[in-house]
Amino acid sequence: MNRPRSPERNTLWKRLAATTAVLTLTITGCAAITSGGGDAEGEEHTLEEGFHVGLLLPDLYMERYESFDRPYFESALEDLCPNCEFSYANADGEVDEQQTQAQAMLTDGVDVLVLDAVDAEAAAGSVNQAKSQGVPVVAYDRLAEGGVDVYVSFDNHRVGQVQGESLLEAIEQEGTTGEGQIVMLNGSPTDPNAADFKAGAHEILDDQVEIGQEYDTPDWSPEEATTQMEAAITALGADEIVGVLAANDGMASGAVAALRSAGVGLEDLPPITGQDAELAGVQRIIAGEQYMTVYKAIKPEAELAAEMVVALATGEDLDTSDHAVTEMEDAAGESVDAVLLEPTAVTLDNIGDTVLSDGYHTIEDICTEDYVDTEFCQEAE
């Protein structure tokens, strides 16, 4: 788990001077990340001259990366550094492809690399190559190994807790507590975040409900989740399943597909969790197919990453005054300074106060032809 910063690392956190207020990052309680910015010879870059930034995202399975993370990050970087050059690549779930993309960016001379790893352990090679060239690395959303400079994400343990709490609440509302078993569809075993989600969920669910079947889902694949859910139905019986802990919205869709194929009607679907507040996930919530999703406000995460990039490249301090800065260890034991944001549970009751109020989705996005007759869309007219 996360722990306070050690005294020897306190020198990395200082108040940002007023003259560099343009780089202010709103994060509380602690002071600021000081970058060791610049290239291998120690040269620091300037906003006036600009510098080259590379962004590597992991896959196309999840709606968020192409629709939100990339455009939010690119926009924030352009606002902070109009003269910066931006390069982007998506690995489409392929470990080797991401390594090739990272090598290409480093060969092309990127000055800072932002990496959301397909495989955290495998990413260590790219991180080490970057370090050997004096290129700082921001671990984005997933903590890559190899000794990255800084990490920005959400409190992933808390994400799992939120899912577990929501599922227990829904089972209680259904009146099925103690009457059956749940199925857990955890995330990809190559994603360190998935292990945190899983641990957080178990912390809430263990000894509170019987876990009948549990699976780790390769590559967060909805198709794999469907197959796993079919196996769970065969093992337990559809009528015995009182809840499904699906680690994200894509896998929730797989669970729904398997249950419906097994003859479970809409009114008899057990509560199913999700994550990422994908449009299809929100639509399943208003249709009664999915109970909840976890909303992680991607825009502030992407903006924090862009501000970290600027600080690392220019050598400026990054002020922190709204969120705690934590010292974490990656799976290889490397210590990393991290900023972790708070996730939010989204159910039918608070869609308007979360994804709609933030502009993450619009009523027009949600209430398409297939959903316009739902009670939610009727009341939104």
Description:
- The chain is 38% helix and 18% strand.
- It is built from 12 helices and 14 strands.
- β7 (181-186), α5 (192-205) and β8 (210-216) form a beta-alpha-beta unit.
- The longest helix has 19 residues, at 156-174.
Arithmetic mean pLDDT: 89
Count the E strands: 14
Report low-confidence residues grouped into runs of 5 or more: 1-32, 34-42
Query: Which strand-content bin applies to the residues?
Result: 15-25%
Side by side, the strands of the main sheet go 3-2-4-5-6-13-12
Features:
381 residues, alpha/beta, seven-stranded mixed sheet, 12 helices
Summarize the entry for a quick read:
This protein is α/β, with parallel strands linked by helices and 381 residues long.
List the helices and strands and how they pair.
Blueprint: E1 32-34, E2 52-57, H1 63-80, E3 85-90, H2 95-108, E4 112-115, H3 124-132, E5 137-140, E6 150-154, H4 156-174, E7 181-186, H5 192-205, E8 210-216, H6 222-236, E9 241-246, H7 249-261, H8 279-287, E10 293-295, H9 298-314, E11 317-319, E12 325-329, E13 335-341, E14 344-346, H10 352-356, H11 363-366, H12 375-380
Parallel strand pairs: 2-3, 2-4, 4-5, 5-6, 6-13, 7-8, 7-9
Antiparallel strand pairs: 1-11, 10-14, 12-13
Helix pairs in contact: 1-9, 2-3, 4-5, 6-7
